Amino acid sequence: MTAVLTLASIGDLEKVAPLVAAFHAEEALTTSEAQRIAAVTHLLEGTPLDALYLICPRVTPIGYVVVSHGFSIEFGGPDAFIDKIYICTPVRGKGIGVKNLLQICKILKAGGPKAVHLEVDQTNTVAQRLYSRGGFDLRSNYNMMSKELR
C-alpha cells in the first residue's frame, strides 16, 4: 500500500474519532469520549504548532499521525514530536507504519525541524522495531517525564 498522508481538518472529525477511540481502547487509556472529542476537535480546528494527518485514503482512513512542534537547544532549533501514530489492526504488518513514519519525517524536514522525537512503551518491542526501521534511536540516558496541567 502506498504511503499517503493527508492533513486532516475539522471536516474529518467523524473519521478520526473512531480511530482515536480504537487506539485508546487498545492501549487501555482511560479518557472519556468527551475528552477525546474535545482534544481532536481542538487539533482539527487548526493550531499553529500541531497537526493530524490521515493515513491513506481520506474517504476511509486506516490510521493517523499526530505531530506537535517545539524547540530544542540540544538539537539546534525547532523540533517535532510524533505524539501518536496509529494503524488499524487488520492492515498492520504490511509496512504501512514505517512508510508513513518516513513520509511524515520528510514532510517535517521540509518545514525546518532539526529533530523528530516520539515515545514508545518500554515493553512494546513491535513498535520499537518499527521506529528503528524508520531511523529512530533509543536514547538510553533519558526518560520522558510528564506533568498534567489542570
Give the key terms.
150 residues; alpha+beta; 5 strands; globular
Structural summary, described in words:
The model has no long low-confidence stretch (mean pLDDT 90). The chain is 34% helix and 23% strand. The protein is of the alpha+beta class and 150 residues long. Strand 4, helix 3 and strand 5 form a beta-alpha-beta unit.
Oligomer description? single chain
Strand content: 15-25%
Query: How many E strands?
Result: 5
> Structural class, please?
alpha+beta
**Radius of gyration, rounded?**
15 Å
Major sheet: order of its strands?
Answer: 1-2-3-4-5
Average pLDDT number: 90
The total count of helices amounts to 4
The outline comes out as globular
Question: What is the chain-wise order of helices and strands?
Answer: EHHEEEHEH
Work out the helicity level. 25-40%
Distance from N terminus to C terminus (CA atoms, Å) equals 41 Å
Question: Spans of 5+ residues with little confidence (pLDDT < 50)?
Answer: none
Main sheet specs:
5 strands, mixed
